[in-house]
């Protein structure tokens, strides 16, 4: 910031020196040219002539006025004159300084009005011009991102509302059949009850998606930190996902030292790993292995999730941690989710002072979580 103001400070300093120099030069000029210099007699004669003609005084009285009023008070009059002159010149210069504030104020107005024009200031205010334009670009990006996020959210809500109708219609239909056919065979009744229960679970999942959207917008992340054994957490999580892995021949391998620990919020860190692993399972090939590893690197703990699946394009990787963004919009909400999992994971990791990123190539997709060793 000091370097930013150097050009402006230099200009102000030069202007102050210039004001002082001009004031001294004019003051000395008045004293040594007009009062005590070669124009002294000319000044005295004109002053006396003024007293005679304007004030109707005689030569003797006019001379005494000059003597007592000007000659004997020359120092005081010079001081007053220089002070007035200094104020006048300073006022003129101050108007230039005020212009800088006016330019910044106009620039801020452009930010508030969301003007499309680039903010332009004086050359010596180039640093402030660059900062204001940077803020302008940042605000425009945030506005665009918020609009896109809101649009995705609205689209998702429409999809969810539409999807809710299907299982709800099925639940009502099968319940009506069960209610109307009192003598329905036991096997058929059991099949209808099973279908109804399945549709009800699906309906519950869709409703939970709505709650997830609301919680994401309203919840402020509060951390309750404690020591976490990474190996135990990740192994336990892999066991919990076993029913999702087996039907498609997938498995999870955890390669973490048994004494590797990190300090953070247990529930929230578990939610991060849960969301990443769920995403890896959803988008990995059948009969493939998802690898999870963790190691200490200098002052950080790095946890890596690798799965074999279709390559994720650079454009999608840039948006993968945005809320309501879904990698595959063609996937149904029952499998694709609300597009909040990775966005929530990023917020949690950010709150812990860590980072989360994704890489993808033709062979695999990798999610990398970095957490400070001592949070």
TrEMBL record:
Q: What is this protein called?
A: histidine kinase
**A single GO molecular function, which one?**
kinase activity
Q: Where, per UniProt, does this protein localize? A: Membrane
Q: Which organism is it from?
A: Clostridium brassicae
Which reaction equation describes what this protein catalyses? ATP + protein L-histidine = ADP + protein N-phospho-L-histidine
The EC designation for this entry is 2.7.13.3
Could you tell me which PROSITE patterns the record lists for this protein? HIS_KIN (PS50109)
Q: Which residues span the membrane? A: 12-35, 76-94
Residues covered by the Histidine kinase domain:
159-375
What keywords tag this UniProt record? Answer: Kinase, Membrane, Phosphoprotein, Transferase, Transmembrane, Transmembrane helix, Two-component regulatory system
Signal peptide (from-to) = none
**RNA-binding as UniProt keyword:** no
Q: Indicate whether Cell membrane appears among the record's keywords.
A: no
């Amino acid at each position: 910031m000091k370097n930013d103001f150097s050009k402006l400070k230099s200009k102000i300093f030069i202007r102050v020196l210039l004001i002082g120099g001009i004031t001294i030069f004019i003051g000395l000029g008045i004293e040594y040219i007009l009062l005590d210099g070669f124009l002294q007699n000319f000044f005295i004669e004109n002053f006396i002539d003024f007293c005679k003609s304007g004030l109707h005084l005689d030569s003797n009285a006019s001379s005494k006025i000059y003597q007592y009023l000007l000659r004997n008070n020359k120092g005081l009059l010079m001081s007053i004159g220089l002070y007035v002159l200094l104020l006048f010149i300073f006022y003129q210069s101050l108007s230039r300084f005020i212009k800088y504030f006016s330019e910044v104020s106009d620039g801020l107005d452009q930010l508030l009005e969301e003007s499309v024009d680039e903010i332009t200031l004086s050359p010596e205010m180039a640093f402030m011009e660059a900062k204001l334009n940077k803020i302008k670009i940042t605000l425009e990006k945030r506005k665009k991102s918020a609009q896109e996020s809101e649009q995705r959210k609205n689209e998702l809500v429409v999809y969810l509302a539409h999807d809710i109708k299907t299982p709800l219609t099925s639940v009502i239909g099968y319940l009506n059949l069960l209610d109307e056919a009192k003598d329905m065979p036991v096997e058929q009744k059991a099949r209808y009850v099973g279908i109804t229960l399945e549709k009800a679970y699906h309906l519950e999942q869709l409703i939970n998606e709505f709650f997830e959207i609301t919680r994401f917008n309203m919840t402020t992340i509060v951390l309750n930190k404690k020591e976490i054994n990474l190996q135990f957490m990740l192994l336990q999580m892999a066991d919990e996902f076993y029913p999702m892995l087996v039907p498609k021949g997938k498995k999870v391998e955890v390669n973490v030292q048994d004494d590797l620990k990190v300090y953070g919020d247990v529930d929230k860190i578990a939610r991060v790993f849960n969301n990443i692993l769920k995403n890896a399972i959803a988008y990995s090939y059948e009969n493939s292995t998802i690898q999870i590893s963790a190691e200490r690197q200098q002052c950080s703990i790095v946890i890596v999730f690798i799965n074999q699946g279709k390559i994720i394009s650079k454009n999608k990787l840039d948006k993968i941690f945005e809320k309501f963004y879904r990698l595959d919009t063609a996937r149904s909400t029952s499998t694709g989710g609300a597009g909040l999992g990775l966005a929530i994971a990023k917020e949690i990791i950010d709150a812990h002072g860590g980072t989360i990123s994704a890489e993808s190539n033709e062979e695999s997709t990798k999610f990398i979580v970095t957490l400070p060793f001592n949070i």
